[in-house]
Amino acid sequence: MFERTHLACLATLPDGYPFADMMAAAAGAGFEEFAAWLLSLDRGREELGSLDAVKATMDQHGLRVSVLELLHAWAVGEPTAIAEELAVVQHFAEVFDPDVVLAAALVPELHAHAVAALKAHCQALAPRKVALEFLPFTGVPSLAAALALRDEVDEPNLGLVIDSWHFARAGFEYELLEQLPGEWVYFVQLNDADREPWADPIAETMGGRLRPGEGAVDWPRFIGILEAKQLSCPIGSEQYSDAVKNLPLDVACRYLHDSVQAIITDPSSQPGQNR
Fold first, then answer.
1. pLDDT tens digits along 143-154
2. What is the pLDDT of residue 274?
3. Residue 9: strand pairing partners
4. H/E element, 61
5. For residue 77, is it left (φ>0), alpha (ψ between -120 and 50) or beta?
6. pLDDT tens-digit map of 164-215
7. In what helix (H) or strand (E) does residue 54 lie, and over which residues does it extend?
8. pLDDT tens per residue across span 234-246
9. Which residues pair with 189 in a beta bridge?
10. CA 21 to chain centre
11. Angstrom distance (rounded) from CA 37 to CA 157
């Protein structure tokens, strides 16, 4: 079994609630860790007055930022933007002390200097881990592409994120996932994908992800592969869903938490009808 399965993506919680209420609801549902976007934490700072106050509120509820998101300017290649983004990430990392900083390409093609830029980020953030995420509509579209880029960067603190929605939309590279060393997996995000992709992949990934077990992922196989790796990294929910966003806060938090626990406990479960 997995060691850490109580991770939530902060940005998937319903909007419009006071930050302290969000923390109380997340903790009450059973979450212990967050993958947190800079933007989500910055919204907390606007409300509470400082990043230190944001962290103190998290501490009060026994929560921490394990994964800090997101480095993406490295893929574009504009030196000023790369330096500015890294400085901001380093500042947030000093406050929240995450285990992992997430890096991803948000553009269709990588800039010629992307490898060098990502390598420099890994060196600047060491010994903290940097987790590379593949997204099927970007310049790092698959697990195979992420592994190739990791080899090019060749830094010991660069690993991977395994997100089941991106894994599905990248073509279900189960055999390659089986071969992936467990120590290269820095965290795992669980959600499901419609059996038929939407016409707009951005709209689907940001608002149409399904509960694990309701879509196209072969969960017994997927969970079985990951369990065999004896992962000690954080594992949890990243279900970007307009429907979840419209739930009451406490209901949404329990739903997201319990969805992950259910699929880990019984990967063959089917909690709802496939859309």
1. 999 999 999 999
2. 38
3. 35
4. none
5. left
6. 999 999 999 999 999 999 999 999 999 999 999 999 999 999 999 999 999 9
7. helix 51-60
8. 999 999 999 999 9
9. 163, 236
10. 22
11. 20
Contact 156, 180 (CB under 8 A): no
Average pLDDT, the chain: 97
Q: Output the furthest CA–CA distance in the chain (Å, rounded).
A: 49
Class of domain 4-265: alpha beta
Tokens 């991803």 locate to 104
Confidence of residue 273 (pLDDT cuts 50, 70, 90): very low
Domain extents in the chain: 4-265
194: which residues sit within 8 A by CB, 6+ positions away?
204, 208, 210, 215, 216, 274, 275
Give the closest residue to 56 by CA, choosing from 34, 23, 89.
Answer: 23
Phi, psi angles (nearest 5°) of residue 20: -60, -40
Query: CB atoms < 10 A from the CB of 248, how many?
Result: 11
- Tell me the pLDDT tens digit for each residue of 101-112: 999 999 999 999
Cis status of the peptide bond prior to 136, with omega within 30 of 0: no
**Helical residues (DSSP H) of 66-110, grouped into ranges:** 79-96
DSSP state, residue 28: H
User: Residue 122 in contact with residue 151, Cβ under 8 Å?
Assistant: no
